[in-house]
Amino acid sequence: MAFISNVAVKAAGVAALLVVAVVSPAARAAAVAVAGGAPSVPAGPLDIAQLGAKGDGKSDSTPMILKAWKNACEATGVQKIVIPPGNYLTGGLELKGPCKSSIIIRLDGNLLGTGDLSAYQRNWIEIENVENLSINGHGTIDGQGALVWSKNQCQHSYNCKILPNSLVLDFVTNVQIRGITLLNSKFFHLNIFECKNVLIDKVTVKAPGDSPNTDGIHIGDSSNVTISSTTIGVGDDCISIGPGSKMIRIHGVKCGPGHGISVGSLGRYKDEKDVEDVQVTGCTIAGTTNGLRIKSYEDSKSSLKASKFLYEGITMDNVSYPIIIDQKYCPNNICVKSGASKVAVNDVVFKNIHGTSNTPEAITLNCANNLPCQGVQLVNVDIKYNGSGNKTMAVCKNAIGKSIGLAKELACI
Ligand SMILES: *[C@@H]1O[C@H](CO)[C@@H](O)[C@H](O)[C@H]1NC(C)=O
Ligand SMILES: *[C@@H]1O[C@H](CO)[C@@H](O)[C@H](O)[C@H]1NC(C)=O
Ligand SMILES: *[C@@H]1O[C@H](CO)[C@@H](O)[C@H](O)[C@H]1NC(C)=O
Ligand SMILES: *[C@@H]1O[C@H](CO)[C@@H](O)[C@H](O)[C@H]1NC(C)=O
Ligand SMILES: *[C@@H]1O[C@H](CO)[C@@H](O)[C@H](O)[C@H]1NC(C)=O
Question: d(Cα 349, Cα 29) in Å, to the nearest integer?
Answer without folding.
Answer: 44
